[in-house]
Amino acid sequence: MNKIIIDILPISIFFSSYHYTNDIYIATKILVLLCILQLMLLKLQKNKIDNIISY
Predict the structure, then answer these.
(1) Between 20 and 30 A from 7 (CA), which of 16, 23, 46, 48?
(2) 22 φψ region: left (φ > 0), alpha (ψ -120 to 50), beta (else)
(3) pTM confidence score
(4) What is the pLDDT at residue 13?
(5) Are residues 10 and 28 in contact, defined by beta-carbon separation less than 8 angstroms?
(6) For residues 15 and 19, what is the distance between their CA atoms, to the nearest angstrom?
(7) What residues have CB less than 8 Å from 15, skipping those under 6 apart?
(8) What is the pLDDT, as a whole number, of residue 5?
(9) Can you tell me the distance from the alpha carbon of 47 to that of 11, in angstroms, rounded to the nearest whole number?
(10) Distance separating the N- and C-terminal Cα atoms of the chain
(11) What pLDDT is attached to residue 52?
(12) How many helices (H) and strands (E) does the chain have?
């Protein structure tokens, strides 16, 4: 359940930031930064990164 919340959090913040700013470019920048941060935290915690995300 915790993994699902962590995976859905960036996209929900993306929609919230788009609704708040009405600027797709700012919302996209926020989404990219959150995804990078999410991957870094997973890597630091030594959690498995799903094959769908990693290259």
Answers:
(1) 23
(2) left
(3) 0.75
(4) 93
(5) no
(6) 6
(7) 27
(8) 82
(9) 20
(10) 25
(11) 65
(12) 2, 0
CA 12 to chain centre: 9
What are phi and psi for residue 39, nearest 5 degrees?
-65, -40
Query: 30 with 13: CB under 8 angstroms?
Result: yes
Structure tokens at 31: 């989404």
Total residue count of the chain as it appears in this document: 55
List the structure tokens of 41.
Answer: 């935290």
Read off the tokens for 1.
């359940």
Q: Read off the tokens for 14.
A: 């993306």
Q: What is the pLDDT of residues 1-55, one digit of tens each?
A: 577 887 888 999 999 999 999 999 999 999 999 999 988 888 887 766 666 655 5
Q: Domains of the chain: which residue ranges?
A: 2-44
Lookup result for tokens 């700012």 = 26
